[in-house]
Amino acid sequence: MTEIKEVKKRNVAIEFWRFFAAIAIVGFHIGWIIARTCNGSNGYWMETSNWFFGSSEVLLLFTITAGYFLVAHFKKLAKDPKYNERSALSRAGEYTWSRIKSLLPVLILGYILGVLIVTKFYYPNYGFKEICTMLLNSIWEFLGFHSVGLRSTGGEFFNLNGPLWFISAIIIIGYFIYWGLCKNEDVMAGLVAPLLSIFFAGWWSFTNTRAAQTAWSTFGTQLASTNGMGGSATDATATIGFNNGLIFVMIGMLIGVILYYVLGKVKEHKFKSLTGITILNATVSVLLGWYIINQPTFFNLERWTVSFLCIMVVALSLLNKDGISKLLNNNVTNKALEYLGGLSLYIYMLHYPIAILVLRLLGTNTEATTYPFWLVYIPSVIITILLSIVVKNIMEISVLKKD
User: Fold this and answer.
1) Do residues 96 and 174 touch, judged by C-beta distance below 8 A?
2) In whole angstroms, what is the distance from residue 95 CA to residue 58 CA?
3) What are phi and psi of 241, to 5 degrees?
4) What are the two backbone dihedrals, phi and then psi, of residue 261, each rounded to the nearest 5 degrees?
């Protein structure tokens, strides 16, 4: 008699949040950055909307999950004695290469779209020579080093596809965390992760620093010109510092590392009733969802309160014990949410130039006929999702094809 193996259903509660955060971030960039940049320039006028402004804080969802699944990957392979015999450098390099292989082709595509679409929006007088110069001066972006500050000094790539700093930061920080786990898991998970996450999170909160690929933070001196989104280090910045984007991603990924071990213990607990954690998940989900859509909220939540909500939502989703997580994991929506969650990073990497394209297709307008936010947002999301589906399918049958 043939044995029928039960296929374990994947927990997709977290995928719902990843997809929701991705399309909300599209709204943030359109309603805040693009609208504020294009108003009055090149004949484009668009509503400066606060809608989805709160999504500027929820990149933390992606960094926490990245750290959590990094540890899950490490623990899975660590069961193999031969794998453990390899050097930390070898194992961390292999992990990083797998991340580069899965993300760098789409990152490059995102920059190419920026060259083809956004250049003619912000720099309509650019000819072939100027575009070639831009490409050559921006070689580090194509290699994935945007987030460390190795980017075009002219600032073009902030406009071409600035959000891609986040992808390069995940790859770079992921290497060092994985190396630390391979070298000494106890020290990395028990000392380095909690110490650095507490230290940097406290400093981040105290200085009111924001995640931005152009902002540069210095220890000991927090200069006004380098503190906040859009700030930039200059030749006069004498003290040693770090790119804010790298620090932000490191905080989130280290929290994800800690969360993996904490949830491992919590999952062993036998809950007498699930009502309490269901109410908790409902509360933090409503607060976070409302903040994302329409910040500031009724409660005027501070940024680190929102960070706590992000941590709780990720933790409860990955725990998968409460009623809401179980509901999201039902047989009807399981596959759909899994697929949508798999699109989230593609959406993030491709949306910025698509939004510019939509605005270009709508055509130049006047201040009196300012385009409403939703007129740009809805087609931008639809086109980005469709393009993400195409790119995801191509990646799966080519670069990510399993032997």
Assistant:
1) yes
2) 25
3) -150, -170
4) -75, -35
> What residues does 243 pair with on adjacent strands?
216
- As given in the structure block, the two tokens for residue 63 are 């960094």
Residues, the chain: 403
Query: Which two tokens mark 225?
Result: 């010109």
CA–CA gap between residue 39 and residue 36 (Å, rounded): 6
Helices 244-266, 193-207: crossing angle, 10 deg rounding? 130
Cα 254 to Cα 233: distance, rounded to the nearest angstrom: 26
Distance between CA atoms of 388 and 133, rounded to whole angstroms? 29
Residues 6+ apart with CB under 8 A from 56: 25, 28, 32, 210
Q: Where are the domains of the chain?
A: 13-397
- Rounded Cα–Cα distance for residues 47 and 49 (Å): 6
**pLDDT recorded at residue 52:** 84
When pLDDT is averaged across residues 259-263 and rounded to a whole number, the result is: 96
Q: Which amino acid appears at position 180 of this protein?
A: G
d(CA 223, CA 71): 36
Planar angle of CA 308, 309, 315, nearest 5 degrees = 90
Q: What does the DSSP assignment read for 33-76?
A: IIHHHHTTBTTB-B----TTGGGGGTHHHHHHHHHHHHHHHHHH
Give 327-356 pLDDT, tens digit per residue: 888 888 888 999 999 999 999 999 999 999
pLDDT of residue 216: 66
> CA–CA separation, 139 vs 299, rounded Å?
45
Q: Which H/E stretch holds residue 354?
A: helix 334-362
